[in-house]
Design goal:
- The chain is of the alpha/beta class.
- The protein has three domains: about 120 residues, 3-Layer(aba) Sandwich (Rossmann fold); about 110 residues, Serine Threonine Protein Phosphatase 5, Tetratricopeptide repeat; about 160 residues, DNA Cyclobutane Dipyrimidine Photolyase, subunit A, domain 3, CATH 1.10.579.
- It is about 50% helix and about 5% strand.
- It has a five-stranded parallel β-sheet, with helices on both faces.
- The N and C termini lie far apart (about 70 Å).
- Flavin-adenine dinucleotide binds next to α9, α11, α14 and α16.
């Protein structure tokens, strides 16, 4: 009897899961393993919103495995040590795992390979699991990644994609490997009230609903803040309860401009992943530095805190920041606006904002978060790095009725449409009666400071 370990990381699904399929195919019996890596807690990345969603994912995965004759083995500790221990207990010849892109994942892979090989076992790493197209698959000659999205996307579209795999029908489990209790959401403290349900079953339901009644309108409505007309699949993509390759294939099959626009966003996801894979230090360091001397000191700290709390005095910025706290999620247009406001208007280091996002986002993801923050701060791959978004004009454009602002900023619930993005124009007395904060900064002053800092 041969045995293999299928190590789940950011691929918490049974369908279209190449490491699981390969483990089940090459060995007589399988240990489906998830390690609660204490290194992630120690690095401060175990945000409660993601831990709650993760608990749902593991519970659902365990159910699915039990239906197929196995169950999820959960262990807590240092990941390499735990995997080696389980491989030894199961006498597994191979460990199958998905390739991933961060520096953390690269180091994990290297250490795991060395430790397994020294015990006479083999690590098998599978591409195109976390992304639809693997990092490094599309590279101009002599380069290790592509730095501009449009040409990347053209090549991405031409890249042959594999057909999505079904879930294994039966999985024969290795006998006698013990598991900790699968974590439960109810035991997670400090979770935002609006965090959605995690797990492959919930993800598939959401995706089916999206194909039926969301995707066709996506191209026209994705920027409408109040309409909430995006897929909200990002947490499922982050934890891999849905496969990006399958999403691309099924959206393409459905066809139409909405589906094409949606697929383009999935390509953005792959794009950022390939940048991080080639430049892992850009999770902290500027991708293209402007030698910014970001504001620090007491006033900048106070302003960053007002931004975190959704009390900047700019309604659409505050609405988005409050949505983040309540739901652990924020609309993409909101993310762009609050990112520009922090990094450019307030001229506070993008890392301060990225950290706050990672503390709250259910989809908080090193590749997507850090690369998008850098894009917005103009230190990343944006070809117009000094663009500054004006929250008032953007608010009027993407929330013309003020419905998004009223939903998240109760102080402005009864303000007429004319003033909802500029409540300070109501007049002193009426404005004071709202109990809504004064503007932190004049937009013109913020713009001048930023341009001066960037030498523009
Ligand atoms: C400052 C900032 C920080 C961000 N942080 C994250 C993050 O931590 N995790 C994350 O998944 N996304 C992040 N994004 C990208 C984007 O805002 C979210 O992916 C999107 O809002 C998720 O909502 P949705 O699933 O409804 O997206 P949809 O519009 O339905 O798009 C479908 C999918 O495409 C991908 N996608 C969409 N836009 C982008 C993008 N700009 N970059 C990369 N992938 C994209 C996502 O996986 C998304 O689920 C960030 C954007 C900005 C500007």
């Amino acid at each position: 009897m041969t045995a293999a370990v299928a190590l789940f990381t950011r691929d918490l699904r049974l369908r279209d899961n190449p490491p699981l399929r390969a483990a089940a195919k090459t060995a007589d019996s399988v240990v489906p393993l998830f390690v609660r890596d204490t290194g992630i807690d120690a690095a401060g990345y175990a945000a409660p919103n993601r831990m709650a969603f993760l608990a749902d994912c593991l519970t659902d995965l365990d159910h699915g495995l039990r239906e197929r004759g196995a169950r999820l083995i959960v262990r807590t500790g240092e990941v390499v040590e735990q995997v080696c221990r389980v491989a030894h207990e199961a006498d597994a010849a191979e460990v199958h795992v998905a390739a991933d892109v961060s520096g953390f994942a690269a180091r994990r892979e290297e250490r795991l390979r060395a430790a397994l090989e020294s015990a006479g076992r083999r690590l098998c790493v599978h591409d195109r699991v976390v992304t639809a197209v693997a990092p490094g698959e599309i590279t101009p000659s002599g380069k290790d990644h592509m730095a501009v999205f449009t040409p990347y996307f053209r090549r991405w579209e031409d890249t042959h994609r594999r057909d999505p795999l079904g879930a294994p029908r039966r999985i024969r489990a290795v006998e006698g490997v013990t598991s900790e209790k699968v974590p439960s959401r109810t035991r997670t403290k400090g979770v935002s009230p609006g965090v959605p349900e995690g797990g492959e079953s919930a993800g598939r339901k959401r995706f089916a609903h999206w194909l039926r009644s969301g995707i066709d309108a996506y191209e026209d409505r994705h920027d409408d803040l109040a309409a909430d007309a995006t897929s909200r699949l990002s947490p499922h993509l982050h934890f891999g309860t849905l496969s990006p390759a399958e999403l691309v294939a099924r959206a393409r099959r459905q066809g139409g401009p909405g589906a094409e626009a949606f697929v383009r966003q999935l390509a953005w996801r792959d794009f950022h992943h390939q940048v991080l894979a080639a430049r892992p230090r850009t999770s902290r360091d500027d991708y293209r530095t402007h030698h910014d001397r970001w504001r620090t000191g007491e006033q900048a700290r106070r302003e960053a805190e007002a931004w975190r709390r959704g009390r900047t005095g700019y309604p659409v910025v505050d609405a988005a920041m409050r949505q983040l706290r309540h739901e652990g999620w924020m609309h993409n247009r909101g993310r762009l606006l609050v990112g520009s406001f922090l990094a450019k208007t307030l001229y506070v280091d993008w890392r301060v904002g990225a950290r706050h996002f990672l503390d709250h986002l259910v989809d908080g993801d090193i590749a997507n978060n850090q690369m998008n923050w850098q894009w917005m701060a103009g230190t990343g791959t944006d070809t117009r790095p000094n663009r500054v978004l004006n929250p008032t004009t953007q608010g009027k454009k993407y929330d013309p009725e003020g419905r998004y602002v009223r939903r998240w900023v109760p102080e402005l619930a009864d303000v007429p449409k004319r003033y909802v993005h500029e409540p300070w124009k109501l007049g002193e007395e009426q404005f004071a009666a709202l109990g809504y904060p004064e503007r932190l900064v004049d937009l013109g002053d913020g713009l001048d400071r930023f341009r001066h800092a960037r030498g523009k």
